[in-house]
Amino acid sequence: MTDLNGSRVAILAADGVERVELERPRKALMEAGADTTLLSLEEGEIAARDNDLEEAGTFDVDRVVKDASVDEFDALLLPGGTVNPDKLRADESAVAFVRAFVESGKPVAAICHGPWSLVEAEVVSGRTVTSFPSIRTDLRNAGANVVDEEVATDGNLITSRSPEDLDAFCEALVSAVASSR
Questions:
Q1: Is the per-residue pLDDT at 64 higher than 80?
Q2: Catalytic residue status for 112
Q3: Which SS3 state, helix, strand or coil, does residue 28 take?
Q4: Residue 12, Cα to own-chain centre: how many angstroms?
Q5: Are 129 and 159 in contact (CB under 8 A)?
Q6: Per-residue confidence band for 95, with pLDDT thresholds at 50, 70 and 90
Q7: Catalytic: 170?
Q8: H-helix or E-strand containing 150?
Q9: Residue 7 near residue 35 (C-beta atoms within 8 A)
C-alpha cells in the first residue's frame, strides 16, 4: 500500500457533485494515509447526486475555496456530476484556485465532468486529457488533445471518463500524490 501520511489533498466540489466520484477517491486517499479537505463555494453542506438525477445525501464542507491557498495542499481532486463543475466554473475564486493548482505543478485529478473546471481555468491547451463524452468538444475547443482512455495522465493532470473508471482513476491519483512528495 502507498503511504501518503502527511499529504493534504483538497477536494473542490459544489451542489450536484456525483457522490461516488467524491467518495471513492477520498476513501482511497484516506486509506493511503492522506488528509482530505472538502472545499466549496459556501459553508455548510453540498448536495450529492447519483447519476445526476437522484438525490444522494450531502457532504459537510470543511472550508470555502476563497479562503484556501494552493500552498496548503499537495494535490487537488475535481469530482464530476454535471451541476457541480458548472457551478464551480461560474465562481471566480474556484476558477482561480484550479488555475493556480495546475500551474503549481502539483497533481490535479478530474473525473467525468470535472474537467469542465480545467477548461474554465484555461489550463488544458496542448494537454492530453479524457472526460465524459459529452464535454469532449469543450475540451477540444479549449485546445486539449482528447483521448478515450480509462485514465489520461499528462504531467500533473490526471483525468478519467466516468465512475466506471474509478478503480484506475483512484490508483493513478494515489500514485501521483505519492510520486510528488
A1: yes
A2: yes
A3: helix
A4: 7
A5: yes
A6: very high
A7: no
A8: none
A9: yes
- The span from the CA of 91 to the CA of 161, in Å, is 24
Residue type, 72: E
| 113 contacts 135 by C-beta, under 8 angstroms | yes
Which residue stretches of the chain are H helix? 19-31, 83-88, 92-104, 115-120, 136-141, 166-180
- Give pLDDT, residue 1: 56
Nearest CA to 65 among 38, 35, 83? 38
User: Tell me, what's the pLDDT at 181?
Assistant: 81
Q: Are 58 and 31 in contact (CB under 8 A)?
A: no
Angle at 122 between CA 37 and CA 97, to 5 degrees: 25
Query: What integer is the mean pLDDT of 21-40?
Result: 98
pTM summary value = 0.97
Question: Which of 112, 123, 172, 174 is flagged as catalytic?
Answer: 112
How does DSSP assign 51-66, residue by residue?
TTTEEEEEEE--EEGG
Nearest-angstrom CA–CA distance, 157 and 105? 9
Cα separation of 25 and 8, whole Å?
13
Q: Which of 26, 87, 106, 113 is catalytic?
A: 113
